[in-house]
Design goal:
The protein is α/β, with parallel strands linked by helices and about 375 residues long. The chain has three domains: about 110 residues, Rossmann fold, CATH 3.40.50; about 80 residues; about 140 residues, Heat Shock Protein 90, CATH 3.30.565.10. It contains nine helices and twelve strands. The protein has a five-stranded parallel β-sheet with strand order 2-1-3-4-5, with helices on both faces. The longest helix has about 70 residues. About 25% of the residues are buried.
Length: about 375
């Protein structure tokens, strides 16, 4: 302990034997290091009064006082002055008693007549320094918690502001977009004969572009909702969820015969509604990019206790660009006959991340893709 930080350490000695009290005082006077100011009290009652009236750095406690109840007295002292370093002085050289005292919260166990000034001073300094270090850690933890709460509040406010802007933007854009689309359709329906081929093409492009932009707005709102929806955790049948998702996708592609395999007995923990959305995006992605395969194949299964996959034999992708798959509006295949706005995989990734899992992909151009994701098998806090 640096001399320039602490020069006097206040120690309370509760000891009913005056001779032992004198020995402790002399030992501390002769000890190297900082100066010890010793306050001696001969009874437990007097010791408790002194603790209430003064500020001490450590307590030397004799457990064999007439009014003491051994180890229970140590617990009483700790309850009254939580955090104060307590060192037990005892005339009993018994390992079991020493261990019991340490379990009860004593910093050290010293046997009378078997310590000198240097040993006693070192034990006191170590106990006090441990207390100081613990106090500093607790103070830092409190400060860190305050900072985390402040940053969390700031982040929540920023997210709310962004959501408000997003909702306002989508609402304000939707009405003029529908007007553009509607008037383009009216022009085509009512004035087609007055338009040449280029004019009709321009109007069709306008209608299509406005419709695509409205789809983008819907996708953005869906992505926003998945980020703020409260999770409802439960054990659920992932195989049954996958079967429902596949059924929906088959209806979306009535002219194609997809060979789909869903592994049985897939179980997971999470919010079934959100997981269905995420799995729906992955399966929709597989159907879309295998539609030209002959035959198109999709497999949903498990690889390990908590790892699942959606595999297809579609167009695949270059692994050099894999990091872009889950970023909003990033499309590896552009508009090469594959519709979409680039939000689906980002939505799936965000849902899996909210469940504490991970979503990643492996692929090869012309050789299909496999999307892997992890979901826990236990409820939050369940061992």
């Amino acid at each position: 302990m640096p001399r320039d930080t602490i020069t006097i350490l206040r120690v309370l000695l509760v000891e009913d034997n005056p001779g032992d009290a004198v020995l402790v005082r002399e030992a501390l006077l002769d000890a190297p290091g900082p100066t010890f100011a010793l306050d001696w009290q001969p009874t437990l009652t007097a010791g408790l009064t002194a603790l209430a009236d003064g500020t001490f750095d450590a307590l030397l406690l004799d457990l064999s006082l007439p009014e003491s109840r051994g180890i229970d007295t140590l617990g009483r002292m700790r309850a009254a002055h939580d955090g104060l370093p307590i060192l037990v002085l005892s005339g009993i050289d018994d390992e079991e008693t020493a261990v019991a005292a340490l379990h009860a919260g004593a910093q050290d166990y010293l046997v009378k007549g078997r310590f000198d000034g240097a040993l006693l001073a070192r034990a006191l300094r170590y106990a006090i320094e441990r207390k100081r270090a613990r106090d500093e850690i607790e103070a830092l933890n409190v400060e860190l918690e305050v900072r985390v709460q402040r940053r969390t509040a700031e982040l929540a406010a920023a997210n709310q502001e962004l959501e408000a802007i997003l909702h306002s933007l989508t609402h304000d854009l939707r009405t003029p977009l529908r007007s553009i689309h509607g008037f383009a359709e009216l022009l085509l329906d009512e004035h087609r004969s007055q338009l040449d081929e280029d004019g009709r093409d321009y109007l069709q492009r306008m209608a299509g572009a406005s419709e695509r932009l409205e789809t983008v707005l819907d996708a953005l709102l869906e992505l926003s909702r998945t980020a703020r929806t409260t999770l409802r955790w439960e054990h659920f049948d992932l195989s049954a969820t996958a079967e429902r998702v596949v059924h929906d996708q088959r209806r979306a592609w009535p002219d194609r015969d997809f060979a789909v395999t869903v592994a049985p007995d897939l179980r997971a923990v999470g919010d079934p509604r959100l997981i269905r959305i995420a799995l729906g995006q992955l399966v929709a992605n597989a159907f879309k990019f295998t539609r030209d395969a002959d035959p198109p194949r999709v497999e949903i299964g498990r690889a390990g206790e908590s790892t699942f996959f959606v595999r297809d034999n579609g167009v695949g992708f270059d692994m050099a660009f894999a990091d872009n798959l889950f970023r909003p509006f990033q499309r590896l295949h552009g508009d090469q006959g594959f519709e979409g706005v680039g939000i689906g995989l980002a939505t799936a990734s965000r849902i899996i991340q909210r469940h504490g899992g991970k979503l990643w992909a492996e692929g090869e151009p012309g050789a299909g893709s496999t999307f892997w994701f992890t979901l826990d098998q236990r409820m939050p806090g369940e061992k």
